[in-house]
Amino acid sequence: MGRNMTVMEYESSTVKKSTGAYNFEKRLYVSSMPTHTPKPGIFVRNHWSIESMHWGLDYNLQQDNIKRKSTRAARNLDT
Fold this sequence. Notes:
Layout: E1 6-15, E2 22-31, H1 41-61, H2 73-78
Antiparallel strand pairs: 1-2
């Protein structure tokens, strides 16, 4: 038996604080959440808040460019 899939359209608008530039985007998501899930936008915002934190770590610390040679290197780096 397959899983039910839900397609969600999420509209986002942001204003860049330094320039006042306005940006509007529509994004589509495929989810296994039931169609009657209340406020699915909360899940989308939570996901992107984590992703934006990862982007900041990679951009500032260049984590994706570091070659890890030992099995414990990733843990040591993150610690």
